[in-house]
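User: structure tokens for this one?
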Amino acid sequence: MRYHGVIYSVFTIFFCLSLPFVAFASQTNGTIDPAHAYAWGDDVGWVNFGTTGGNVTITDSALTGYAWSSNFGWIDLAPTQAGVTNDGNGTLGGYAWNENIGWINFSGVTINNSGMFAGVATTADEGTINFNCSECIVTTDWRPASVRNGSSTAPVSGGGGGGGSAISSSSIPYSANCGMADFNCDGRVNLIDLSILLSHYGQSVSANSPYDLDRSGTIDFPDISILMYYWTG
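Assistant:
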């Protein structure tokens, strides 16, 4: 029965959460999630930031490694005398290099509190590389310095008498700009987001549902696994 599957899923998740030394994100020395690694340019084509050979790494000061353009080949994120910079809070800048495209300006790109890239990088002659299109998702386990200690976590108001109040997923708006699995847009992926996801467990949904993280058409255990990957607590 479906409900037995739900109970098993919940048990598995809380077992994982009970392991105090497991880290779900390398917040200061991040990599790209291979399942969510593609940006798009009308001229550049698909740009894969998560190839095995590219070894893209995100730190508080820079991006290093190589992304792969389907039309133009390797893009060097840290060329000599240039490179893509990070101000420590996810605002990128500087220049990448491709032999066919030339310099690529990353000053229009950011990484949000959930590790999702947004904005566009620009080239001189080959248009832009877009991180915002409907099929463009590039995510990392790096996190901005301002949220690593939960400083930007929004408090959840409790009811009178300290008893707390139930959270209704239908009352919480979802914005694609909040980041992967951050359903309540508080800059964290935690038990609130898990509760929201479980409230939709087993449902068949449309292709653009924010809760269908693996785009399978059903809210199921793989979606929970993806949420756990982005877990910040």
